[in-house]
Amino acid sequence: MKRREEEKVCINKTQEIPAGNAEIPAERREREQTEAKFAHNPGEILAQHAVEVSNENSEPPQAKVVMETVSNMSEDEAEGEIPNEPATNTQTTECKVCDQNRKEIDRLLQENRELKSELKKRELNEEFLKDNTEKVKYYTGLPCFAVLISLFRNVQVFLPTNNKLTPFQMLLLTLMRLRLDLPIQHLCHLFNVTHKTLSSAFNDTIDVLHARLGPLVHWPERDCQQAIMPQQFINTFGKRVAIIIDCFEIRIERPSNLKARAQTYSHYKGTHTMKYLIGITPQGSISFISNGWGGRASDKHITEKSGLLNRLLPGDVVLADRGFDIKEDVGMICAEVKIPCFTKGLRQLDAKAIEDTRAIAHLRIHVERVIGCMRNKYKMLHTTIPVRLLIPREAITHDESIWRCSKFRKPTVDYEATLIDQKILVMVCCAANVSI
């Protein structure tokens, strides 16, 4: 305000008309020139006039102040536009803060995108296993991702809806539990679901897999089997070998019921087990799996009651171990069973018996290899099966809607007691056949 008042004083003094005579034309011309210069460059005119006023009135301090003030004025300041230095500094500071905040926001957004991408890679879904054969083999036991997707598409429409898990995750957690024998609680943490949700999803998926994949364990036609008979079987038995059989056992918890405890105790394993009869073709695929029996049951009894003999044709050859004393039963069908020779009561076998035993053992070993491969690939067969999984449940395999939509025909054998453990075993056998 003080500076503007000083400017007004200077301007008023420049507009004063000297006393005396009237203005002459030369003075008027000079005044007009001065006004024009003032309009063009007011700072310079005011500074010059301030010097003249100081000389005429002998006021050096005031003139000096006016001159310093006006000389430091810019053209914009002379017109009344005086900058606000504190406001300018505040705006500059605010701009720097905004730039810093913007950079920090960009950095956080980029970090958020990277974390989302990393989290998506670790999520257990299709992307987790896609284009990674090693992961597929480790987590599912299947040979490649294409086989896994084909299996998923086969069962997808039959899987029940779940709010917490996608259909693919239901299939994946089931295969992971069979393959790695992971505890339920660990799977709950991996898939971020409750114990009840995961157990329900596992049971439902096993039911669907048993219904859809069960027909993969099938008895092949004789013509088809003989057309691809391996040469080592042809050299020994011709094309007559139909099946190679053996029994294997799975440990179970000790039942509380005394009768069940006696029926399931296996003297061979020294613990409580469930016993199954398994048969493979000469090509190595699993073609027969029986219901579960208590570990006390003999191999002969299981073979006679499992329905295996009903599938044999006249002229077929069955390769088995010494425990399968079923020559009379197989002979009733005009078939033949080949087992190693007994040494009981003999000091030594003759040359022919030794050669026959060696040939049978050399070919029968394939069924033990398949059982060992199945156990090693699916660790759940190594663990102790809880008794609650042995309780009969409603068999989804008999659901007409599933078999109506399936390209396979409904099984002719009606299993009286479809157990959870037997469904698991059928699923493992199917996976083993797919992996061949």
UniProtKB/TrEMBL annotation:
<protein>
    <recommendedName>
        <fullName>DDE Tnp4 domain-containing protein</fullName>
    </recommendedName>
</protein>
<dbReference type="InterPro" id="IPR027805">
    <property type="entry name" value="Transposase_HTH_dom"/>
</dbReference>
<dbReference type="Pfam" id="PF13359">
    <property type="entry name" value="DDE_Tnp_4"/>
</dbReference>
<feature type="domain" description="Transposase Helix-turn-helix">
    <location>
        <begin position="163"/>
        <end position="215"/>
    </location>
</feature>
<feature type="domain" description="DDE Tnp4">
    <location>
        <begin position="245"/>
        <end position="389"/>
    </location>
</feature>
<feature type="compositionally biased region" description="Basic and acidic residues">
    <location>
        <begin position="25"/>
        <end position="36"/>
    </location>
</feature>
<feature type="region of interest" description="Disordered">
    <location>
        <begin position="1"/>
        <end position="36"/>
    </location>
</feature>
<keyword id="KW-0175">Coiled coil</keyword>
<feature type="coiled-coil region">
    <location>
        <begin position="98"/>
        <end position="132"/>
    </location>
</feature>
<dbReference type="InterPro" id="IPR027806">
    <property type="entry name" value="HARBI1_dom"/>
</dbReference>
<keyword id="KW-0479">Metal-binding</keyword>
<dbReference type="GO" id="GO:0046872">
    <property type="term" value="F:metal ion binding"/>
</dbReference>
<feature type="compositionally biased region" description="Basic and acidic residues">
    <location>
        <begin position="1"/>
        <end position="10"/>
    </location>
</feature>
<dbReference type="Pfam" id="PF13613">
    <property type="entry name" value="HTH_Tnp_4"/>
</dbReference>
